[in-house]
Amino acid sequence: MEVTGNVTQFSYFILSAYFDSGALKYLFFIIVKVLYILIVSSNVLLIVVICMNRSLHEPMYVFLCSLFVNELFGSASLFPFLLVQILSDVHTISTWLCFLQIFVVHSYGGCEIANLAIMAYDRYLAICCPLQYNTHMTSSRVACLIAASWMASIVSCLVIVALSSPLPLCGNIIDKVYCANFHIVKLACSDTTVNNVYGIVCMFTVVFSVILFTLYSYIRILKICLSAPKQARQKALSTCTPHLAALLNFCIGAFFEIIQGRFDMSNVPIVIRIFLSLYFLTCQPLLNPLIYGLKFTKIRVICKSLLFGQT
């Protein structure tokens, strides 16, 4: 810890959202561990199923594979760290590890919304422009879309970390169970206009525009479905339902993250604050494999065959 004037360069941060749970910490440890095992096993299972079965080598399933890889990426930034913190009596995190966690968490969020937007575009082409689908959604186009979603998220998050890491800080207490960029910015003693402007630009030009594009795609799909025969309408809606459920779940988690960073949550019970913090990195990786695994017939049949020996 280095002091320069009234500013201190901290080598670690204190995560103040943890509380003394006594002997219950072992129960919490088991619950979190079981959740992480479920997340890893379910996402890995579906990735293996999609990769190993040629009948699933279609754009929609390839995009799903990218989504499941991202779920593993995001959950890995939280759960191993959370398991250590639950059993620890001192809830600190080194500065470099804190910024690494910020990078991974933000990259996960950016890649998640980008993947959902690409999947909405894929469904739009398949339902609204079926004759041009194979022309537009080629193997090279699929690879470019996936690469672009990952690279854009990674580059934008590298900028976030590059802007936040040099900031001189007046404190090192983060009221959260893991590191978040906005909480670091709030601790800064210097001008953070650049950080705030960049965050707002990313939020409105990237996140909101992507969500609006996704919603627009589904509105066009719904318009086509309303004028289609009943059987075709049911088939189209059945493929869009899991995408809409995943998008809604992501928006709920993102909303929880935004209100925690922008509003004073000190009057909210600590248990609720922890739940809101963990929702973003827990429910999406846990529910997405369940939503898609149960809804898509091809995946469900192959998974049942692998797990229970059914054909």
How is this structure best described in words?
The chain is mostly helical and 311 residues long. The protein has helices spanning 24-52, 59-76, 79-87, 95-128, 133-136, 139-164, 181-186, 193-226, 230-262, 270-295, 297-308; strands spanning 2-4, 7-9, 12-15, 92-94, 173-174. α1 packs antiparallel against α3 and α2 (59-76) runs antiparallel to α4. The protein is globular, with a radius of gyration of 21 Å.
Indicate the topology.
Elements: E1 2-4, E2 7-9, E3 12-15, H1 24-52, H2 59-76, H3 79-87, E4 92-94, H4 95-128, H5 133-136, H6 139-164, E5 173-174, H7 181-186, H8 193-226, H9 230-262, H10 270-295, H11 297-308
Parallel strand pairs: 3-5
Antiparallel strand pairs: 1-2, 3-4
Helix pairs in contact: 1-2, 1-3, 1-10, 2-4, 2-10, 4-6, 4-8, 4-9, 6-8, 8-9, 9-10, 10-11
Please state the structural category.
mainly alpha
User: Which ranges are low-confidence, i.e. pLDDT below 50, for 5 or more consecutive residues?
Assistant: 1-5
What is the overall number of helices?
11
Q: Quote the distance from N terminus to C terminus.
A: 62 Å
Essential attributes:
311 residues, mainly alpha, three-stranded mixed β-sheet, two-stranded antiparallel ribbon, 5% strand, single chain
The gist of it:
With 311 residues, this protein is mainly alpha-helical. The chain is built from eleven helices and five strands; from the N terminus they run βββαααβαααβααααα.
